[in-house]
Amino acid sequence: MSYSLESNTMLEVQNISKSFHRKVALDDVSLNIHKGEIFGMLGPNGAGKTTLIRIINKIVQPDKGLVRFNGEIMTQNHLSQIGYLPEERGLYRSMTVENHALFLGQLRGLSKADVKLKLNYWLDKFDIQNWRDKRIEELSKGMAQKVQFICTVLHEPQLLILDEPFSGFDPINVELIKQELIEMKISGKTIILSSHNMESVEAICDRVALIHQSKKIMEGRISELQETRKKGEYAVRFRGSMIAFVNALWTGFEIVDKDILGDDKFVVRVKMRGENKFEDLLKVLIGQINIEAAWEVLPSMQEIFIDLVQPKIENNHAQ
């Protein structure tokens, strides 16, 4: 097989297969992760995502296939340029936050002075300087995760791999970490997010791969995947009479769903029939109700995933 590398590829996973005790964990999976993007590896628990991450990190050897980092076949030497936050959070509980950072930072090749400098930056940024001398066992789960995130990025890796990064975080800290990841991407870092909770990561991903039962079933830009799987549905938020709304539609449109927000306030999802367009929908409604907002409904990654795997599940049951 001939190999050509796009200059913007940071990581290429090429035809990776892996089995454990005859159970297939990965089946001929290939991915291309571009420099400076946030890439989502999405799929249910047990799909093979964590196995793939462990192969990239040289923790597990594949049965077949290879990984290239920046155009070179991946070796242990490349690991210094990777930051890895595993799903199972491992911290030395009797260590203080500072000692833990020193230990992990020096393992990554940083000097003691460098670690202290970078730790200061992050403690300031998260406004948690008073955590420095706390032992890990004194921290809540969310606090400990924040410390582990800091330790993962201390050495300023080119590639950051986060496995279920938001589990255990409250909504405020989820937004805080998301903002950090977006800033890192803007500065040129490449980030891989692996999650079974597609909703939590899709808003910040540029591209995603959907993984199901050890196979990659789709890869691409979120906007393109949504475009190809959309169902011609639009939503209208309005004030007025529901009867007036229904009467205005006639036969050109079909009501799919509705939410009642108040006595005279609704959000209704509508599907186009025949050649009708969005403008036609607005034309028939204007003057009948008070439109507050109207938009095209795009499927979430969760919906796209279900859409893709449902027929396969039904076929398997039918056989």
What topology emerges from the helices and strands here?
Layout: E1 9-20, E2 23-34, E3 38-42, H1 49-56, E4 64-69, E5 72-73, E6 82-85, H2 97-107, H3 112-125, H4 141-153, E7 159-163, H5 171-186, E8 190-195, H6 198-202, E9 207-212, E10 215-221, H7 222-229, E11 233-239, H8 242-249, E12 253-262, E13 265-272, H9 278-285, E14 290-296, H10 301-318
Parallel strand pairs: 3-8, 3-9, 6-7, 7-8
Antiparallel strand pairs: 1-2, 1-4, 4-5, 9-10, 11-13, 11-14, 12-13
Helix pairs in contact: 2-3
How would you describe what is shown here?
This protein is of the alpha/beta class. It folds into two domains: 9-227, Rossmann fold (3-Layer(aba) Sandwich), CATH 3.40.50.300; 231-296, 2-Layer Sandwich (Alpha-Beta Plaits). The chain has ten helices and 14 strands. It has a six-stranded mixed beta sheet with strand order 6-7-8-3-9-10, with helices on both faces. A hairpin with a 2-residue loop joins strand 9 and strand 10. Helix 2 crosses helix 3 (112-125). The radius of gyration is 24 Å and the shape is globular. The chain starts with 8 loop residues before the first strand and ends with a helix. Residues 1-6 have low confidence and may be disordered.
Describe the structure concisely for a colleague.
The protein is α/β, with parallel strands linked by helices and 319 residues long. It is 34% helix and 30% strand.
